[in-house]
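Hi support team,

I've been running sequence recovery on a batch of backbones for a student project. Most finish fine, but this one hangs at about 90% for roughly twenty minutes before it completes. I'm not sure whether the input is malformed or the queue is just slow. I've pasted the structure tokens below so you can try to reproduce it. Let me know if you need the job ID as well.

Thanks,
M.K.
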């Protein structure tokens, strides 16, 4: 499969019309490959200490409480679906929709700028997660303050309830095989939502209420599903803002 993908990639560079889409996406491919390759890094080359308490402690200091714990305390299947939509569906689909909008309605090179900013932001986020491993709220819910190690598998958190609703084992198996389990900070769900909305606002300033509402929706969903602390979300948005300003 890897050889086939490599051949398809090299072939795409020889087709002018396809190359217009592939070249702007090179930073994104670099991020995805880096994320996938994290699982192959030997333990000797990974940080020895995994931070379990630093994020919830900072959360309580900065915001006066563990917001993720408060938001996720009361669950209901309607709230599960409402959180799943941005976190598990729109998050993966909207980058393609926005890319098409930028290509059709944006100024020349706008799509290339978005691809670079989006890819490098996510790459910086993954490298931060790799060098500064932090446990997510679901870890605190299951293991408390017990020391973490790299033998621990990822958990779907609140998304496990979506598996129950849909009768699937999608998120349980996906997060259980995650190549980067301790990647709570920064939240790339927050980063992606923020940078997408910044470019959407750039394309159509009148949509600013939608941009703010979607970002807040994503923030709520990540905390409700016990995947991130508030400080992770702020960190992800800062990464996005820096990438947008540099681009």
């Amino acid at each position: 499969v890897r050889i086939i993908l490599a051949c398809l990639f090299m072939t795409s560079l020889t087709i002018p019309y396809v190359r217009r889409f592939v070249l702007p996406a090179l930073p994104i491919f670099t991020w995805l490959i880096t994320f996938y390759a994290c699982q192959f890094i030997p333990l000797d080359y990974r940080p020895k200490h995994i931070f379990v308490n630093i994020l919830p402690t900072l959360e309580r200091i900065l915001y006066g409480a563990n917001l993720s714990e408060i938001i996720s305390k009361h669950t209901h299947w309607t709230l599960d679906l409402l959180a799943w939509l941005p976190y598990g569906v729109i998050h993966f689909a909207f980058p393609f929709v926005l890319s098409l909008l930028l290509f059709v309605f944006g100024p020349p090179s706008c799509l290339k700028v978005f691809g670079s900013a989006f890819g490098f932001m996510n790459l910086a986020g993954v490298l931060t997660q790799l060098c500064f491993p932090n446990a997510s709220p679901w870890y605190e819910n299951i293991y408390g303050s017990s020391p973490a190690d790299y033998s621990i598998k990822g958990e779907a958190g609140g998304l496990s309830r979506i598996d129950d609703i849909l009768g699937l084992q999608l998120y349980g198996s996906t997060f259980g095989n995650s190549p980067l389990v301790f990647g709570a900070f920064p939240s790339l769900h927050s980063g992606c939502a923020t940078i997408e909305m910044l470019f959407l606002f750039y394309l159509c300033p009148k949509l600013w209420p939608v941009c703010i509402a979607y970002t807040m929706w994503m923030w709520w969903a990540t905390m409700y599903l016990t995947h991130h602390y508030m400080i992770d979300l702020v960190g992800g948005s800062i990464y996005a803002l820096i990438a947008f300003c540099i681009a």
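--
Follow-up from support: It reproduced on our side and the slowdown came from queue contention, not your input. The mean pLDDT is 91. No action needed from you.
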